[in-house]
Queue: 2 jobs
Job 1
Amino acid sequence: MDRMLRRAWMAGLAMVWMAALAHGSAFAESIRVGLTGYNSAAQLTLSASPSLSVSRVDTGESLVAEGTDLILSVQGSKVSVKSGAGEAVLSDGAVLAAPNDPSAILSLVSNGRTRKYRGSVEVSAKNGALRVVNVVDVDDYLLGVLPSEMPDSYPEEAIKAQAISARTYALRNSRKHAAQGFRICDTSHCQTYGGVLAEKPKSTQAVLDTKGMVLTFDGQIADVMYSTDCGGATRNYSSENPTRSFPYLCGVVDPDDIPHICWEQNYTLHDLAVKLIKAGVKGADGLLSVVISKTEASGRALEVEITSSTGKNQISGEKIRSALGLKSTLFSIESTTDGGVAIKGKGFGHGVGMCQTGAKGLALPPHSLTCEQILAHYFPGTAITPAASQTTAQTTHQDIHKAASKGAGKDMAKEQPLPVLLDIRLEAPDQL
Ligand SMILES: [Zn+2]
Ligand SMILES: [Zn+2]
């Protein structure tokens, strides 16, 4: 190679390397997570090793430069910051507390309970209580999310699929909590986030292995949804929300050999009527029969007809599910020989998007799918893409799956009881 050519080649390499760095830093995007556990707290003790600093968010003015155990409390509409024996400093706006070593972990103690978080926290006074927001890199946030969303005992490729789903969920254009000053809350309303104390090794590895990867459709971050167990077939989101079309939230069928939850609940007509009346269902008094009158493609009950001494009424399958506390709307209704009703169902949760039971089964032999293949099964037509490229107009979905395509199912998961997850979260996907 002649010298000129080599120089050009080296320059090219340097550009690629710089582009990769730029991409890395673009993804070190932080997210504002509302820590709802402090909603009624009037006082909070903060510490970090070796020290932390506190400044005003609006002006950047330093309030404490080198604190160890700082007590933050509400003084009317102001935040008071007290360091050791020193005088308390008051701020009439939000304050930002950050470890002086950026890799250190913040400890927050309130009402005798300690929680630990990466990143920094923003504290403000709201209606006589503290409002605490964790400002944290997205992937650091995911470390504290994943173990609450999928057991660490699940196969590696299933956890990686969950990591990409959880990252996609976090980065989509959500405005649910905009009025409260954060993007996402730490409960199952958004995604359960337990901070550093919740972190688990396999989940952490899955976040690292899928670093920065999100699910996209047509170059936009997808509106992912997931639930514990689809009962064998996922639900088409648009079948119950005809005005909203999400082509990748369509119904898919899991392979027959993957075991899904089966359940049964039995009622006398009288007990059933009492429960329906309590849930506000009209015309349940004098109940004579209950039949499913409309089903969705996956077999879920869309509409149920109840016949009573006063006539017939139609109610939604979802209404029956919530009135009776059923695990899903994927059920049949049978009359029992003693004149009662047996509701026989499958699955647990809303069944839209990724099925966690199915993801586990698909990651294990004989399927042994990679996380990419698992996500392609549940979200047809989507691509796995670096999150940072979402800011560019044209996304080429190429050659980006390397981080997410290692061998599958190395680690056999033990059977574990299913976690209680965010299945009840059945909100509309946000408009992109
Ligand atoms: Zn929320
Ligand atoms: Zn399934």
Note: The CA atoms of residues 1 and 296 lie 65 Å apart.
Job 2
Amino acid sequence: METLQKQKSKLNNAGFQVHTLENTTEVKFSEKLENMGLFPLKPKNIETLQINLGKLCNQICEHCHVDAGPDRKEIMIKKVLQQCLGVAKTTTITTIDLTGGAPEMNPNFRWFVSELSQLGKKVIVRSNLTILTYKKFLDIPQFYKDYKVTVISSMPCYTKDNVDKQRGNGVFERSIEALKKLNELGYGKEGSGLELNLVFNPGGASLPPEQMALEVDYKRELKDLFNVEFNSLYTITNLPISRFLDFLLKEGKYEEYMDKLINSFNPSVAENVMCRNTISVGWDGKLFDCDFNQMLEIGIASSSQNIANFNEEELKNRNIVLGQHCYGCTAGAGSSCQGALV
Ligand code: SF4
Ligand code: SF4
């Protein structure tokens, strides 16, 4: 488990006096916001409930910020799923965003999605694609179509070598197989109403390239090489936490990467960081400002600490808890679970 404490130890062991929160020699993220009159950072609204259904995954990707894998035991139980449903029903939240691990591996996944779909909200599943090629999950693409689920999937490149290097051997081929299957059902096709979006994140210690230009390249290459189509490409910046932090420390690139993030701070995207319209729910029901704070176990600054006592008004008035990792959301074109912020 990658807690904030663990992250601090890793950095200290590597000789850094910098921490993920604010006791640091770097320019503090909160000071940057203060200079813009944005501190303390407040939510604008709560539009999205992002729910982590568990850390179990069939893959062990090099840059996974969840530290997910086949041996993880943390799974959201039915009682907590029911509490999430209750919140979805009784609040003004418009989007339910399901993530993991591989969310499909939660034993109550099908039941949960079918219940959610009756609420008239947008339901997103962050699918790793490869899971859809395993026998037990072959029905899922049709299930997604039946319930009009929006599918968002990682595809860090259109070449096999780059994808397999970051996500494991054989991942590229299985991902293409799953994309073809989704396309056959109408996903990613204009006018079908079935949305299929891909996610790019850099393979190394760099910022993502310009989102729209990269989307054009992806569309051309995937169509020409594999006859695969999709709707939009989201570029996401790797945050310096969990497995990506291990990678940076191993490569001796932590300092260089932090400098890059800090020097690329973009005030125009700071206004729109995703914690201003999203609440993240951990597998055990705990609430967080975002998925990254969840992974670092940085608790939310509200008396609503758990989905069981979700109080929309109170959560809308909270101060968002910030740390140095937040620079990952505000560098260059910005980054969120929906891609660039400009
Ligand atoms: S597929 Fe996603 S959740 Fe699973 S290990 Fe890879 S990045 Fe992590
Ligand atoms: S890391 Fe989380 S809390 Fe920090 S700016 Fe990004 S979304 Fe907000």
Note: The chain is about 35% helix and 10% strand.
